[in-house]
Design brief:
This protein has eleven helices and two strands. It is mostly helical. The chain has two domains: 85 residues, Endonuclease Iii, domain 2, CATH 1.10.1670.10; 103 residues, Endonuclease III, domain 1 (Orthogonal Bundle), CATH 1.10.340.30. The chain has a two-stranded antiparallel sheet with strand order 1-2. The chain is globular, with a radius of gyration of 18 Å. 28% of the residues are buried.
């Protein structure tokens, strides 16, 4: 469907490259967005940070995740060995600002158990881990493992349900993207990030349709 590619181009023109997944810089103490650079992650530490971030961002804002990642860094906890050794209760206290902290501490622990099992990091195995759903699994595969799989989140469902005036679900919407886009990690990466930006700027819960760069293509408008 040509419209899927057309929407991508319109979003890219409106917002420019987003530089996801943002990574923490120990030297500056800030998160850095690598706009136009799709070569990241470049090492295991960056991949592990993305995986932890993908779990932490469940049901919360990215700003809250940034606080937690920063806190983990300050406590020298953002590494496999430290998170393996720490008690779940203490970890929950450190990540409290992410919300659902007790559950997320358990999810991180379960993921580390999975890594210790040396099983292949693929979608089937990720979905077998307690607390890892489709969005989290696909985020790990796309952003940490550079595999071409399109991430569907609540923003994507909201925007495209309005665009097509049709109720979408995770699997059907993911299939729409996967069938109509070039199987390119950089495109999948950028498209998803642009959707998030558009949802925050125009296609909010209460949409600002006059400000929307997609309104000419949108059946909702």
């Amino acid at each position: 469907m040509e419209l899927i590619n057309k929407i991508y181009q319109k979003l890219l023109e409106a917002y420019s490259p987003q530089g996801w997944w943002p990574l923490f810089n120990n030297k500056t103490g800030k998160f850095e967005y690598h706009k136009g650079d799709y070569s990241l992650p470049k090492n295991d530490a960056q991949r592990f940070e993305i995986i932890v971030g993908a779990i932490l961002t469940q049901n919360t804002s990215w700003k809250n995740v940034e606080k937690v990642i920063n806190n983990l860094e300050r406590n020298n906890m953002l590494n496999l060995n430290s998170l393996k050794e720490i008690e779940a209760g203490k970890l929950a206290t450190i990540i409290k600002s992410s919300g659902y902290h007790n559950q997320k501490a358990k999810k991180i622990k379960k993921f580390i158990e999975f890594l210790d099992s040396k099983k292949e990091i693929n979608r089937k195995n990720l979905l077998s881990i307690w607390g890892i759903g489709k969005e989290t699994a696909d985020s790990i595969l796309l952003y940490a493992k550079n595999q071409p799989i399109f991430v569907i989140d609540a923003y994507t469902i909201r925007i495209f349900s309005r665009l097509f005036k049709k109720e979408f679900y995770y699997d059907t919407l993911q299939e729409l993207f996967m069938k109509n886009l070039k199987q390119d990690v950089s495109i999948f990466n950028e498209y998803h990030a642009l959707i998030v930006e558009h949802a925050k700027n125009a296609c909010k819960t209460k949409p600002d349709c006059p400000a929307c760069c997609l309104k000419k293509d949108c059946k909702y408008y």
